[in-house]
Fold this protein.
Amino acid sequence: MEADELESGSGDSINRVDLLLIGLGVALIGIWGTFASLIASPSKLSPYLIGRAADAKNEGKPNRYLGPGLFFVLSLLIFIVVMYLLKLQAVPSAEPRDVSEIVQSSASYKVGYALAQLIDMFEQRVMSGNIWSAIVIVVPVYAFAIALALINRVLMGWIAPGWTAAHAVGAALYNIGTIILWMGMTVLISTIASSFLPTPILAGLTGLAFLTVIGLTAVQTYQFAADVTDEADYRLGILSAVTPVAILGLIVVFVILLV
């Protein structure tokens, strides 16, 4: 291909592909720094809550972190890929009738079963070429984040007038994205560790990891709201502590609806 062809219409298409692939690569690299900051220092992400680095101190500097929307989407995609790869390597599991009634009645089993159904449906529709239909499958996860954002907006609005709906949605997307990516890594590590750790210990560690990331959302919410609104007092801390409770309550509701 000649140089003048690269500058023509076909070249524009090539450039768009290059930009797309480069952008995706940069995002996949940036997601891990964003994830680490959401765990260690969530306040660093507060300027990005509304989808852009809105803080004056970020002007003229490249964005180091992903916005909440991109972080949420990539976390979900990484989770789906991890589950798919593990499924390819998995030994055929027991049929539901072979699982004890106690296990089937547990909340963790129902959450896992609901997620497994969503992933299987997503995989089947992607493989059949129904891309838009596959995208619809993950809509419940986004609806979950919006429901959390609504609760967050109402609660924080009582004492922090500067906390807008945009901030609430951004915080919820960061919250849910963190949980999704954390649980994807937990499942991957648990699968590897299952070869040398007893099942009861592994189940306990997995449950602890789940409770840890759920509790982390309270810290994230507090740091986001305190940084955005300058309302860092005990009332904000109390309301932020409602976030994990709201997430657990919404999980119960969505599991009932999906299972």
